[in-house]
Amino acid sequence: MKIVGISGSNVGSKTRTAMDYTLQIAREKYPDADITLLDLAEYEMVFSDGRDYREYEGDTKVVTEMIMAADAIIIGTPVFQASIPATLKNIFDLLPVNAFRDKVVSMLVTAGTAKHYLMVEQQLKPILAYMKAHIVPTYVFIEEKDFHRKEIINDDVIFRMERLVEDTVLLVDAYVKIRAAKDAEYDF
């Protein structure tokens, strides 16, 4: 199983910290999984101009091809101005409409206050649904108060991250079995 984590901003440290924790949990629980972090702060991405993602070069091509090859994607995003960051939106714009077909996508969100939790429901989930993702219904929402010196200090957040990883992997396994059963119906 190939899992790609996306740290969806090119500024700040909280989302990257949360993604590091989450992917470490995934590595410990599922050592056979191929797990990669794409921290968008570490890549020089160009803005989407409507081309097919395979026509781009450099970091843009690397990032989009890694996402397209994944079985599961864990998106980490901060909330900026009550919305997703432009760097993450650009990733969605670079990919085809059906980019997440047969992929499981889960989310964790960092925000300054609890008032921004609806961003996931009203913006991120509709984008992922439009792109045909199998969305893990629950997500991890982490507030400013849950961090101290680039560490997560809320044990409940760690527990929810563990559950998010488990739900993501279980959903991938379930969809693999469903597709195999569906394919077995055809006798050619």
Automatic annotation (TrEMBL):
One of its GO terms (molecular function) is oxidoreductase activity. Residues 1-144 form the NADPH-dependent FMN reductase-like domain. InterPro entries: Flavoprotein-like_sf (IPR029039), FMN_Rdtase-like_dom (IPR005025), NAD(P)H-dep_FMN_reductase (IPR051814). Pfam families: FMN_red. Keywords: Flavoprotein, FMN, Oxidoreductase. It comes from the Bacteria. This is NAD(P)H-dependent oxidoreductase. It comes from Paenibacillus anaericanus.
